[in-house]
């Protein structure tokens, strides 16, 4: 081997060094540029803060002064502009009027109030994409609620619809149309006004556009006949059938800026990951301006970063920004929160209890919140009321057996043993916070004797003394319990249920399957008993999807094939009752029918659990959940932390 | 050698076809079936008929109703650089538009006479406005197609109702999920006495009407497509028949994003971690193995063996939890970040670290990232030492006893040269076999570590895809890993020849 160091080697080394140096220098140069940019950014945000404070002062000053008197002509024009006259409305129908959206609890009145700061929420999973109507998970909703606004939203305290973008609307007493008037002040975060054309476009050219993959929302729009622009700020929705869901379908969807979204091709919108713009109190820090810089959009794996919408048309939020970080591992999430990388997290039930038990000081620096709100779902065990997989009936076709199954299950203890005591026993499909739920209806009690008596009445008696129940034909009471794998909770639940029924002489076999297979079994109705949970997102939902006998057909969500003529009639009646108070009575009747018939054994309503740092003030729990736009970051340690709860 | 290489490369094509075909079939046979994720992704529906129609629409859109072999052929067509038939158009955004798909004729033509197929004569606008017109036609065609598919679904539901009325021999032919497959009812006479007959006829008439509309709009869109509102994609070879184009990995059902984008986001993360982890494990394990074999039976041999084996026996899950609980938790050591790849706000960091005017240290993006991947790499690396070092040690020991080593020692070759030049070089063959395994392994992320530390790498991508039966992602991944694996094996064969002059492929 020739080891001589030649000129060629020398040149190669020099070249290499030069290249490396060049790379390093270019990095240094870039760093310098970034530093300069940082300085500019800091200045800019400082100026923004100052402007905001000024604006607050100015706004306050104005609101305290009496209305300015103007020349008659100007006043009329101004009134028309501001929508104070009712020219937009259909005559003879009641108008509901709303002031601009305001915080449910005024943060400025809370001690320690300050402007600025970032709120970091830790997510349990990664949202797949954040594009209005195309995404569908719970994380998307949490971001969407900050960035986009609908014509109306649920009031955090009363759970009734209240105006958001709309400053007034009329709902046809016969339920066939809804007319809404948009607040003339409303602006999207790029400063363009929100008009009725944006509303029409959102519905007709976005949600109903077959090239946009918004199937989920589109399927709720079957009843929509037309969206008509009446004038610049007035829009009217007409419907084919009078259903109570019409009003929320018309008013409850986020309104998108036409001018912005029409810059993109439908395929680009479909495949985008972070294309969300609206008129809400926050906006995305980085949002593509057009199809050419789609690269800047948020993609899964990054933190979702929102900044205060400085052009927000109603009262601006105190926080300077919000950040959503995903940490999949439960322990990692807790450690990260405790390390100060998160301002809010969702603890698991054991985490919630352990931390509170082992650290008495925890609540001095953190809020530990636990409450039931309209977004709480319920878990249940569903009994196959029809023929399994189209073949033979299961024992659960008999109402007495279903009632007995509920009586035999000690749900209080289940919650204590499996969920560490966090949760309340569920009594039916209605959220306990909703007016549709009757407080007089109580869950069936745990009573083994009553359960056994009911089983005996239905013909299930231990006839040969082997400890297992048999029917007249001598068949043993045996059933299969299907659940989706992937979770310690579901395993423990299965064991608990199995033991409870074994004590009463019922043989339960467990059948764990993966989620895709599980979905298929639901469609095929190929199970005896199955466990699942339904989520919730509004105070009132249409029970037709789950409980009507029409939903048995074609793989619908009435997978237990439960038929009850009374329930069907009540569902049909409720859907067509426009008057809210009257409808609630119908739903309560419906709830009583379900409670009597026990097609499901309702297990548990899961309350919301949250840890929030006490660095943040005005943290109130509401019937809608939390309202982070009214949080603020306290500026000093002297501020007394406000007690939680609202 | 060249001959051999060409032969090997040619053999790869059928191997890859075989692998992808197997995977495709396995997916099709899996309970839940291809695209079971669609129903999960479908979410809540307010009405069952809508749920069923949406399912029908999605099945049509992804072609899930065709026989599996047809679907596989379609997938191959997309993945192949050689394309047959009409060429796609390429929008300025880079997205491809395929020619409008054919529409299946309405079912039960034997009972309900089909209307004449519409023949559209239509001159598309050229020049200004051509693109807008094409977009509008596209949208009309998609809408009409959707409503036709909904009508077919409705017809099948009505047919099922009719069959239930018709009674015994027929009911058993209904589908388990509900609905009726018209082909099974060829012999069923449509009788007016059946109470559902009128409804069925109305449904058929509506379906025919919508079919005519869908067909008409499709033809219009197709004519406009042929007028090329956008330039054609790829390079034509035989016009209208064969062309060359880039492979298209498709769009993932479950995420509604191009598979290539998903891989392009996840792969660099996995590559980064593996590119640091593998050299570390090799640089520690191989020298240790060599030393251990040289000092066989000595304290170093026993000590390193013991240490590596005990590391090897700690489950990664446990190590990860301990790492987070003690190394990352500020109540204990708090040395490292808990999760993710970057700190909050890292998107505004400078690339390099620096001290600012006040003398505060800013770590910069580069150091921040490195600091974040310490724990994942630690967990990835510690189990790999045992196997590698033991392999090296065994291979070395085998050669230490060989005659030529004794000869070399006898003729006075220095100990160092005996070990490195003679023994180590001859022990390389088994190491090469292991070494090439790196390349496919580089592409596959570790599911456990990615989950514990919330690293958005390939492991989580593929696991999620398997859970949701997202065919496109699974196939693209298999395809990629299969290619790399085959190439790596070829590389191993070449390296054998380099390491051992006795190996020759002539």
Structure description:
The complex is a heterodimer of chains A (646) and B (506). Chain A is of the alpha+beta class. Among the domains of chain A are: 34-63; 68-105 and 128-261, Dipeptide-binding Protein, domain 1; 378-605, Roll (Dipeptide-binding Protein, domain 3). Helices cover 34% and strands 16% of the residues of chain A. Chain A has a six-stranded mixed sheet. A five-stranded antiparallel sheet of chain A has the order 1-5-6-8-7, with helices on one face. In chain A, strand 3 and strand 4 form a beta hairpin. The longest helix of chain A has 58 residues, at 7-64. Chain B has 506 residues and is mainly alpha-helical. Chain B has two domains: 81-246, no CATH class; 261-499, MetI-like (MetI-like fold, Orthogonal Bundle). In chain B, 61% of the residues lie in helices and 4% in strands. In chain B, the strands form four sheets. Chain B has a three-stranded antiparallel sheet, with no helix packed on it. Chain B has a two-stranded antiparallel ribbon with strand order 2-3. In chain B, strands 6-7 form a two-stranded antiparallel ribbon. At the A-B interface, helix 1, helix 8, strand 11, helix 9 and helix 16 of A face helix 2, helix 3, helix 5, strand 7 and helix 8 of B.
CATH homologous superfamily placement of the domain at 378-605 in chain A: Dipeptide-binding Protein, Domain 3
The CATH architecture classification of the largest domain in chain B is Orthogonal Bundle
N-C termini distance of chain A? 83 Å
Largest contact between protein chains? A-B, 78 and 83 residues
